[in-house]
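Below: protein 1.
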Amino acid sequence: MHGGDIYRQQVTYDFSVNINPIGLPDAVRQVMENSGDLAMQYPDLQCQKLRIKLADCLGIRPEQILCGNGASELILAVCHMLRPQKALLSAPCFSGYETALQAVGTEVIRVPLSEADGFAFTEEYGRNLETRIKEEKPELLFLTTPNNPTGKLTEPAYIRRLLTVCEKTDTYLVLDECFMELTGQAAQYSMLREIDSYEKLLILRAFTKAFAMPGIRLGYLVGKQAVLSSVQKQLPEWNVSTLAQAAGVSALADTRYLERACRLIGSERERMGRELEKLGCKVYPSDTNYILFYVNQYGRQKSTDRNHGSEKRLCKKPATDCQAGPEQAAEAGLKARLLRKQIMIRDCSDYPGLTDGYYRVAVKLSEENRMLLDAMAEILC
């Protein structure tokens, strides 16, 4: 269901989680080193210092921000607040939405993205989604920009059109921007500055990915104050620890940190994409710090011909060596073979809309990326 499961297998290089490759900010490390006193204090129930700092950085008001113990807690809280009968999801998308919706008994309706369009949110797809909203009248729609696992941003114009429909159908749109800060294009693509314009818009972000601190659970929701008050009633008291609040304030202090990360991610992502294509992978264009690609675990690439689903041979092994049943396929798959080299990638076959052969890898530091590519070359060539 998720990447980052390093506790049940031996992993040296974890490409299954998509966090900032330059690592934890120095200011956050200092907070952690001096966290003894923080552990003896109850957290601020309102996360006041953190919300003020966030509001200043984002150009919004503190009362428009609700902090939580990671984005996942806030997703669940929204679902508990609304208890929707129906919800719409794009496919593929982050599995946490469906998990939260199932917890409150919601009927989940998936609207598949097209592989022929690279799983991108096109204008045609937007119109299709608008039609489904009008037909189904769901109480909730989850949308991710950039998408997980594809990494593609969605044009704000398409989101505005969806919001116009959502206002009429009384549908809340939760826009997940958890990877937005790592695109280097937040100014053009984020909807944060338009939060006052829409009653039904909630925007989700997290420190996990942008500041490489998944072990310090911290996320936040942006929206209308009245809606956030209703969401907050679904949360436990003191849900955001003193350490998390202090770490968040410190992380935001280094204004150049994200700029450095985005420059690195952009150059490394382009290089990795080219190298993966040389290995016979079909690479889907990404705007952030991870790449989705397809390659048959036995070295066959999916055809780019939209008129058929044939595959062409890429590996040099005899065809008889590329035959396996389901159990052998799991053992011979790319993820399993990389794990033998203590490298973990994300197998995306459990994403609705994807199949065996789809994988996602994080963009990391140059030398780490080289290790992955060299290991894949040994397996696929």
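Below: protein 2.
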Amino acid sequence: MGKQEELQEIYDLYQTFIQKERPAMEEDEADDWEGNIILALGVDYGTCNLCGNIKKCELSEGFLYIEAEELALITDFRVLLKNRFKDLEIYFATEDPENETYVTNDADGKYFHDLPDDHFIAPLDY
């Protein structure tokens, strides 16, 4: 959730990579690599963990929904976005069904209500 113009900027950047209007920002990375957006925003990710690929990105009024496949349970993509866009509220849910591990910062289940009852609640700033 956030300012519509900021959400639109993230969405538009994603679309430029997916529609191949712009090449991946790093050699050997896919068009849907989450790092493309971070680098295109001018953010230096340093040693942060960016090992996910965005599979779905949908924009609506005040909301940007991103679904990604991550190599790690939690990456730094959302942290880097939050650092760039201070007013952005990011709610996430990650799952590793193989190990039956589910993590979210949506303690009230407002956005992710399909998680198993025994999921782990992370602090909002996690």
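Residues 4-87 form one domain.
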